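Page 47, continued from p. 46.
Same chain as before, 305 aa.
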Amino acid sequence: MKRIIMSYMVATIVSLAAVIGLAIQPSILMAQVQNSTAPPAAAPPAATPQAATPQAATPQAATSPAATPQAATSPAATSPAAAVTNPACGEVVQGNVNLTANLKCSGDGIIVGADGVNLNLNGYSITGPGQQSSKVGVVIPNNNNIMVMGPGVISGFQAGILATGSKGVQVKNIILKNNEIAVFTTGSTDTQVSDNIINNNNLGIASHSSKSVSLMSNIVNNNQLAGVTLVNSHKAILTANNIQGGQNGLFLDAQSSENTISMNNVLHNVIDLNNANGLAPNINVNSYSDNNCMLSNPSGLCMGR
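Result:
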C-alpha cells in the first residue's frame, strides 16, 4: 500500500511537470513579446535630435535647453525598472513588484518575465481557481535571482510557486495552502525555501530534477501525500524544518543522491522519513543526522531509533 502511494506521488510530480510545461509555453512567449516590444518604446528619444535642429540658429541660448529634454528621456527609459505596485492576474512582471491589493485569479497569478525580479506580497494574497486547475500562483520560467517574499498567502492553484529551469530563486515568509503542490522546483538549481508556513496542500515542497535546493526553518503540516519530496534531485540541504501530518513526512526516490537531512522535526506522519521505500541511504548517498522522528523506512534514520 505504501509503495502504491509513493508511486502515485512520483506520477503526480512527473505528470504535473508535463502539464505545467505546456502551460508555461504561452507564459514564456508573453515575456518574449513584452521584451520585444520594449525597444520601440525607447525609440522616440532618437527623434528628439530632429526637434532640436531647428534651434541650431541660436546655438548659445538653445543648445543647453535642448540637452535637458534628452536628460528627461532617460528616466522614461528606466521607468520599466520602477516598482510595479498594482500587478494584475496573469501579468508578466519585471523589476520590483509590490502587491497593493488581494488578487483573485481565474488563471495564472504573476508571471516573472526577467532576471532579478523581487516580488513582495506585502501582506496580501494571490488566490487561484482551485488546486485541480492547471494554473500557477507565481510562475518563474527560466529566470535567475528571483525573490518571492511575504508576508502574504498563495492558495488555490495547481502549483503555488513554480520555478522551472531557474537559478537562485528564493521563497521566504509566505503562507502556501490549499494547492496541489505548494512549492514546485523542476530543472532548477540553488533554490532556497525558508521561513514559510506550508499547510493543507497535496504535496508541500516538491523538487524534481533539481540541484542544491535549500529548505530551512519551514513549518510543513497536514500535506496529504507528503511534506517534502525529492525526485531525481541532488545535493539538497534540509534543516530545522517541522514536518507533520502527511502520508510521508519526507520522501526521496532512488535517483536522489548526495542530499543532507539534519536536525528536522518530522513527526506524526504515517512514515516520517522515507528513503526510496526502504533503500539503504548509503546506496544513494544521502545523509540523515539528528532528526527527531518516530518511524523511518529503512529503520535507523531517526535520532535515537
